[in-house]
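Handout, section 4.2: multi-component inputs.
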Amino acid sequence: MCILPDDLWVEVFSFLPLADLCAPCFTSITLRDAVCHLIHSRLLYPTYWWRHRKQLPIHNMEIAEWWLSNVREPTKLEVLAAARTDQVELVDLLGWDDTHLSARHRNLVRPQLEYPAWNWADILSSRGPRKQEDHHSVSQEGLSE
Amino acid sequence: MASESISVTTSDDQTIQLSRKHAQMSQTINSMLEDSVGADQEAIPLPNVSSEVLKKVIDWCTHHENDPAPVEKVKKLNKKREYKAKNSTISDEWDKNFVNAELRVIVDILLAANYLDVKGLFELMCKHIANELKGKTPDQIRERFGIQDDLTEEDKAAMRKAWGATKNDS
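Output:
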């Protein structure tokens, strides 16, 4: 038996970014319904979000491997999010460009403005300024040695 | 003059004294106190809260007794008119230690905070559970929270489609 009453899940989910609502949707009817209720009650344009803005979670390899196997192939949004958090191994998993994706996936997502084609230069440039500074200082140290 | 302490009776028939300040951090007890002004001061029954959990609630109230009263914020959309989740960061070190407990205890405190309407404590417990969910797969969530998989294959296919499946099986 679930140890949390049904009506409290929406309150808990309100502390999660939208990408983190994906896995609960595949957990049980109660959690799926709580997620849908939250999305439809809090988003101004939920239909638009479902169609164009949804993003999958990139916290760790395990969750990414789960949705790669069970939901769909990655989009540029997810790769950029992984790069911003400096998860190189995860970017390796999702891909440094979109040439490995199925033609069907590319055709479906590329025409949308949010999901254009991606390449390694895009991914590297998406990393935060601090990360770039870190790498700059590392390379400077390397040069002075 | 109002008494400085309030008696409450818990679900396990324990009578516990609360300071008026702590009692007023609970909207539920506060309303009961307002309703009983001038009446004989009997212990307030709290049939949904055990003494063990109430002591935890009092611990939290003691640590936060000088916090400013929570303000009901109207959720505003940002400049891009996009939804932004509530901040789930637990910044107070004492709070971090407080939530370092078994899930059963966390849920009991969450339920008590909900029943007693102690907003800050309720939010803290929700944040902690939300943070527990992050990065977990459906199987891991089910195992952690004792949830049964009652979704049919059709339900899952519909969800895959909703989350953008582009594979042929969806």
